[in-house]
Amino acid sequence: MSVLEKIKNKQRLGLEDAIKLYDLDLFELASIANDIRREKHGDKTYFNINRHINPTNICKDVCQFCAYSASRKNPNPYTMSHEQILEIVKNSSKNGIKEVHIVSAHNPDTGLEWYLDIFKKIKMEFPQIHVKALTAAEIHFLAQEYKLSYEEIIKKMIESGVDSMPGGGAEIFDEKVRKRICGGKVTSQQWLDIHKLWHKAGHESNATMLFGHIETREHRIDHMLRLRDLQDETGGFNAFIPLVYQKENNYLKVKDFLTGQEILKTMAIARILLDSIPHIKAYWVTSTVKLALLAQEFGANDLDGTIEKESIQSAAGAKSANGMPLQQFVDLIKNSGFTPVERDSVYNEIKVW
Ligand code: V47
Predict the structure, then answer these.
(1) In which domain, by residue range, is 155 found?
(2) Do you know which PANTHER family this protein is assigned to (predicted)?
(3) pTM surpassing 0.85?
(4) By alpha-carbon position, which residue is closest to atom 24 of ligand 1?
């Protein structure tokens, strides 16, 4: 049976068939992914009003793709005080944010309580705000640093008020590529184990994939299929987020960058393969806004949010340092023919704009 027939019959594709999807005509692929997107979500495009906070950039790990952590290339180490963080949340809450997205570097100087206390303080002062915090890479770092099990860290996160986990730290699961781009940090299996434990504890998370660096198409498919397997087991992933590699100020020597066509094909393939992950997020920060809007017709049904301040990808060249104003966000979705639906962090609908 051909790949197209298998898709028509709603048969799942394995690695060999999935790779062939890249050989399809761009618009044929778009049409398949768009049909699935419309069946699942109609013309709704989800977004949230959120604030990203990156409390420290001091990191014990050296990921080759990272321009954010304090290093020779970015010699501006900082660690925010809890007062500074609370002030940010206070100001952002006036703008109507529903979520804080807190991701840090792996800072060995702060102490475990520094990480956990800030969640407690945010929850105490702003109980209505959803706290999405700590990637699996951070959880692994904290577990190692403080000689605790993943289960113990997860228990402490939940007790401190963390509601959901962001999808960062997944990068590319293929072990060889991973060793070259971020050797020494959480392994692929550990990343998956941590999300599994988080899901088993009754909470939801997202999953990312960093692509467009030294990986091949096959590595991307392998990454998605490992996520699909875990999702079959736990059902805990809300969204898959393909992050396009940004090339400035880091140590990776990448010669050829992705074309828009390759990015859109990857989004569409994600929508086709990840049948059990409800949402595909076109993260406008890394795909560019224009491509993210186009991605709505290639399977993506979520554009993340207004963000307000973005430090990780903008350090590597993305034009996202100041987020995007709400009205502009809504207008862009509307003008591209979709219905902007504000959501909370776990995809309950809040308002159709
Ligand atoms: O894992 C680092 C990526 C991620 C670069 O869960 C880079 O809703 C591109 O976790 N080019 C962290 N990407 C960001 C993250 C995230 C972002 C948005 C939404 C969600 C969510 C999670 O940032 C890291 C890494 O893959 N990153 N450097 C770079 N040069």
Answers:
(1) 15-352
(2) AMINODEOXYFUTALOSINE SYNTHASE, FO SYNTHASE (COFH)
(3) yes
(4) 168
